[in-house]
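Hi P.,

Sorry for the delay on this. The queue was packed all week, but I finally got your sequence through. Input first:
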Amino acid sequence: MNLVVARKQFSVQKGTAKQRNISWEMTFKEWCEIWLESGQYHSRGRGRDNMVMCRKGDIGPYAIANVEIRSALSNKREAFALMRQSRGIGQIPEADSWLNRKDFDPEELDSWWDLI
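Then the structure:
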């Protein structure tokens, strides 16, 4: 792990959380330890096959006991499902088939949120 690069990645993620009004309760050292212990730091990123640090159930702060390392795709799928649930929307067959496409890109998901 290149600490200069990691420090920038940490700052970007912390800043993004702040923009989203999500509390951040981790130090840089703790953030690094979570990534290193996961063995997935080399796969970190926002693309389909990358890994992300996400909050459990997409609620609460970014804190040691409330984060996990998962695939970006899995995290986006969960976020989409929670968004539908919070808006009282059931299954959307078109969206579900779209989410399960082999060429699905998690970055595309934001456009669906505007539709529901």
